[in-house]
Amino acid sequence: MQVFVNAQDGRGDGFGLIIMPNLDARYYAYPKGINQSRSFVINETLVKTYPFGEREVVHAVVNKTNLPSYVYVFYDMYFDRETGVMLEWYVEQVLSAAPNEKISSLWKIKEFNVKSSPSSETSGQSWQGILVLIILVCVAVVTAILVYKRKSRKRVHRH
Question: Do 66 and 91 fall within a single domain?
Fold first, then answer.
């Protein structure tokens, strides 16, 4: 299943599943969604431990009481700071049609694997590979030039 969310204004089916990466406290998630009531402020950044390891997260708490079909909707959300992916999302809501019933749900990511940027060791190996390739190309070019000149000399001597 694929969902879409515009990381600028929050429109789409994936609201809350991903936000812009690398936000800090007091920044808006979905900053261009202010007029659409989809934006919210990041409250804090912190490090949390999950079964898949420690992650730096951004945390936001949102309490909406101005929605026509709800008495209130409360969100407590944690997003991976590096990627913007939702790691935890607690939702509590009370419908206007049933003000004595509270509906709550909790979404939690069980597995999360982010490929990190190449380490300096890997980068060094990449540069070594490129250097070897350049040397091999140079050797091949020099060899081709020498063979060409040798054949040219043989042709000149035969006449």
Answer: yes
- Please list, in sequence order, all residues whose beta carbon lies within 8 angstroms of the beta carbon of residue 14, skipping any fewer than 6 positions away: 3, 4, 5
β-partners of residue 48 are 55
Pairwise CA distance, residues 135 & 148, whole Å: 20
What is the model's pTM?
0.69
Matching residue, tokens 């999360």: 112
Our count of domains for the chain comes to: 2
Domain span at 35: 1-116
On the CB side of 14, CA atoms within 13 Å amount to 16
Q: Cβ distance 92 to 73 under 8 Å?
A: yes
pLDDT of the chain, 159 residues: tens digit per residue: 777 888 888 888 888 889 999 999 999 998 887 776 788 999 999 999 999 999 999 999 999 998 889 999 999 999 999 999 999 999 999 999 999 999 999 999 988 887 655 554 444 555 666 766 676 666 666 666 766 666 656 555 555
Extract the tokens encoding 142: 């020099």
Same domain membership, residue 154 and residue 101: no
Tally of helices (H runs) and strands (E runs) in the chain: 1, 7
Examine the domain organization and report whether 28 and 95 are in the same domain.
yes
For residues 62 and 91, state if they share a domain: yes
